[in-house]
Amino acid sequence: MGSRRTHDERLRLLRQEGVTDGRLARLRSPIGLDLGARTPEETAVSIAAEIIAHTNQGTGLTLTRITGPIHRPTGQTRPVSAR
Fold first, then answer.
1. Considering all CA atoms of the chain, what is the largest pairwise distance in Å, rounded to the nearest integer?
2. Which are the contacts of 43, defined by CB distance < 8 A and separation ≥ 6?
3. Model-level pTM greater than 0.70?
4. Which of 1, 2, 14, 58 places its Cα 20 to 30 Å from the Cα of 47?
5. What is the DSSP letter of 66?
6. 82 has which bridge partners?
7. CA angle at residue 65 from 59 to 70, to 5 degrees?
8. What is the pLDDT along the chain (83 residues), one digit of tens a residue?
9. Which is it for the CA torsion 40, 41, 45, 51, positive or negative?
């Protein structure tokens, strides 16, 4: 978590400690979907939403912008087709 500047500094320090670029690529910051969150609770929802979208290969788009079925069988990826 943190700003882009904080993340860049974190990456620099981790590289100095010998962490590989492959491992660093797994870090995500800033984290969360753009929900316009202002409160800590809203920020938590934003972060949870990104984790769920990433885990389930979701697009993060609003459902009104996605064509086709909303739900798909477990393990199947969703083709990204926005209106």
1. 47
2. 32, 37
3. no
4. 14
5. B
6. 66
7. 65
8. 778 999 999 999 999 999 999 999 999 888 999 999 999 999 999 999 999 999 988 888 888 888 888 777 766 555 555 44
9. positive
Residue 3, both tokens: 């700003």
Q: Which SS3 state, helix, strand or coil, does residue 69 take?
A: coil
Residue 35, CA atoms < 13 Å, CB-side half-sphere: 18
Q: Is the peptide bond before 30 cis (omega within 30 degrees of 0)?
A: yes
Residue 37 structure tokens? 């969150």
Give residue for tokens 């979208």.
53
Q: Which residues contact 38 (CB under 8 A, 6 or more apart)?
A: none
